[in-house]
Amino acid sequence: MDNCIFCQIVEGKIPSEKVYEDDDILAFRDLYPAAPVHILVIPKKHISSLLELQEEDQALSGKILLGLQKVARQLGLDEKGFRVVNNTGSDGGQTVFHIHFHLLGGRELQWPPG
Ligand code: AMP
């Protein structure tokens, strides 16, 4: 999608600090990190939010989860743990409407979130 910043990151039109990429997913550092490690894992396919996932996206959804695991291991977060967050819609605090999963770690995280 032309006006989607994450699609533009996938296409290389907007720079990003990539940490993992394969045919289906991309992981890059969040521009405004909320933790010492803050990665966004996204499908390359434009899907606006969790609510827009379709049955046909089942395999892709699994790849995203396994991608999160792979990146967590790659960045050494498997030792002490980490958090995966998906914000959906306005109450969820979603600001970019291309589905993404925050991978947060590198410090002890508080619960519940605000
Ligand atoms: P959310 O609020 O869940 O929609 O998350 C969107 C995230 O995208 C925020 O944490 C932003 O800091 C991050 N973000 C926005 N623009 C960029 C960008 N160009 N590169 C990396 N992260 C970005």
From TrEMBL:
This is Histidine triad (HIT) family protein. InterPro entries: Histidine_triad_CS, Histidine_triad_HIT, HIT-like, HIT-like_sf. The active site is at H100 (tele-amp-histidine intermediate). A motif (Histidine triad motif) lies at residues 98-102. It comes from Hazenella coriacea. Residues 5-114 form the HIT domain. It comes from the Bacteria. SUPFAM superfamilies: HIT-like. Pfam families: HIT. GO terms for molecular function: catalytic activity. Gene3D superfamilies: HIT-like.
